[in-house]
């Protein structure tokens, strides 16, 4: 067990970190911002419906995001959180359960602040809540982790797919969800745009109301919590099995990466062709929604294996590893950047609902470059990112040293 000079548990030293996990987490944080920027700056239907964008260029970018990012990197991010629970469990012995409970509890608090204060599309709250359940699995064997993770994921996927297809069988639900999640509805979108272009109090009031539906409908009602639990437990399994430690051979990882990514992209293409061939209707989207999960799982496994190959081959990924070591800080930084350019408050640029997708992509690319420069520079002087330091200090109940010696 890792201990501090005072005898209590302490965070993992930098020289004991697993580089592969840091690199994978760093890529995930950057890729997630590629799609999150849409939800931060436009009404929700633009987040999932590529045919709403006004120009062929914007439509092509949205479709490209679907192939490269959608569901794939969030799946990886979730699995990595599960792997982190195992890391803590293995390193801290009898103290692990207490530390994990505090770790998840503080993440719930951070998530609520982020969800209501910055951006409604927060994932941290859900990780904290689900992590309180997932931590119970952290001591299981590899085979039991794969069994339980697969079972939870299968059950959650069936539940989620059923909930997503439910509007096909209920006209009332169909109308409400179509207007709020897929179609262009001037009244619904106008209300959201007006709220986001108002001052901070109006934005907070809007997000507070939206958060209730986000938590109870999306997280609980559609079974997303069970999908998240399954992914976390499978993340534990793949960590113990060696993939999420970067210990699988290049040959094995290539045998995984190529067919998984090919299958994921083929599923993406089939779904897009199917929906586009039916005029981009909400009905067609609902019919294909169960396959959205499958291409996300396959793509995540393929990307995880591909990054392992890159790390094993010695690719220059130091900057990505630094972004991953500061994943919490960088995730929130991306939200602050996205909501600042979108919001109508005093320091905002009031872009919400007003711009095309291609300028937003330029913002994302600029943000990526900025984080790739700042993260390694910052970590050359400090042990942790600012929010990582705060989180650790709260979990371990004492201020952690942040400056590097010398």
Task: Give the overall shape.
Answer: globular
CA-atom Rg in angstroms: 21 Å
Mean pLDDT: 93
Q: Helical proportion?
A: over 70%
Distance between the termini: 27 Å
Question: Structural class given helices, strands, pairing?
Answer: mainly alpha
Count helical runs: 17
* Helix/strand order, N-terminal first: HHHHHHHHHHHHHHHHH
Poorly predicted residue ranges: 1-7
Major beta-sheet overview? none
Number of domains: 1
**DSSP strand tally:** 0
Strand content: under 5%
As an assembly, this protein is single chain
How does this structure look, described?
With 406 residues, the chain is mainly α. It has one domain. It is 73% helix and 0% strand. The protein is built from 17 helices and no strands. It has helices spanning 19-41, 45-48, 56-68, 72-92, 96-117, 124-134, 142-165, 171-181, 186-196, 200-221, 224-241, 250-277, 282-312, 318-325, 327-342, 357-379, 386-396. The longest helix is centred in the last third of the chain and has 31 residues, at 282-312. The radius of gyration is 21 Å and the shape is globular. Residues 1-7 have low confidence and may be disordered.
SSE inventory with pairings:
Elements: H1 19-41, H2 45-48, H3 56-68, H4 72-92, H5 96-117, H6 124-134, H7 142-165, H8 171-181, H9 186-196, H10 200-221, H11 224-241, H12 250-277, H13 282-312, H14 318-325, H15 327-342, H16 357-379, H17 386-396
Helix pairs in contact: 1-4, 1-13, 1-14, 1-15, 1-16, 3-12, 4-5, 4-11, 4-13, 5-6, 5-17, 6-11, 7-11, 7-13, 12-13, 14-16
């Amino acid at each position: 067990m890792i201990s501090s000079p005072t005898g209590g548990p302490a965070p993992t030293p930098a020289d004991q970190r697993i580089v592969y996990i840091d690199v994978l987490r760093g890529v995930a944080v950057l890729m997630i911002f590629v799609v999150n920027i849409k939800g931060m700056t436009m009404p929700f239907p633009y987040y999932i419906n590529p045919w709403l964008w006004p120009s062929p260029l914007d439509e092509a970018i949205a479709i490209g995001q679907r192939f490269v990012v959608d569901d794939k990197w969030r799946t990886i991010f979730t699995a990595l959180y599960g792997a982190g629970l195992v890391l803590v469990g293995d390193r801290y012995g009898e103290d692990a359960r207490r530390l994990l409970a505090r770790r998840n509890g503080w993440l719930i608090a951070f998530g609520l602040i982020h969800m209501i204060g910055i951006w409604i599309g927060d994932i941290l709250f859900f990780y904290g809540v689900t992590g309180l359940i997932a931590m119970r699995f952290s001591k299981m064997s590899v085979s039991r982790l794969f069994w339980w993770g697969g079972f939870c994921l299968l059950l959650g996927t069936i539940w989620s797919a059923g909930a997503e297809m439910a509007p096909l069988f209920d006209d009332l639900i169909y109308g409400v969800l179509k207007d709020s999640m897929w179609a262009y509805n001037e009244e619904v979108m106008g209300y959201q745009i007006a709220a986001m272009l108002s001052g901070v109090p109006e934005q907070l009031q809007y997000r507070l109301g939206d958060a209730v539906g986000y938590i109870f409908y999306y997280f609980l009602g559609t079974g997303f919590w069970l999908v998240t639990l399954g992914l976390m437990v499978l993340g534990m399994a793949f960590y113990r099995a060696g993939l999420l430690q970067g210990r699988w051979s290049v040959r094995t990882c290539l045998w995984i990466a190529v067919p998984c990514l090919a299958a994921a992209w083929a599923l993406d293409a089939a779904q897009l062709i199917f929906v586009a061939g039916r005029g981009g209707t909400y009905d067609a989207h609902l019919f294909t929604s169960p396959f959205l999960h499958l291409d996300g799982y396959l793509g995540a496994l393929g990307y995880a294996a591909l990054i392992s190959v890159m790390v094993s081959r010695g690719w220059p990924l130091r900057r990505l590893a630094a972004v991953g070591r500061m994943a919490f800080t960088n995730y929130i930084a991306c939200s602050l950047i996205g909501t600042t350019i979108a919001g109508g408050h005093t320091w905002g640029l009031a872009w919400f609902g007003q711009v095309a997708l291609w300028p937003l992509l330029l913002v994302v690319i600029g943000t990526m470059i900025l984080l790739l420069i700042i993260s390694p520079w910052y970590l050359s002087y400090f042990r942790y990112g600012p929010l990582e330091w705060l989180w650790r200090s709260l979990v371990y109940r004492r201020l952690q040293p942040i400056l590097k010696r010398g």
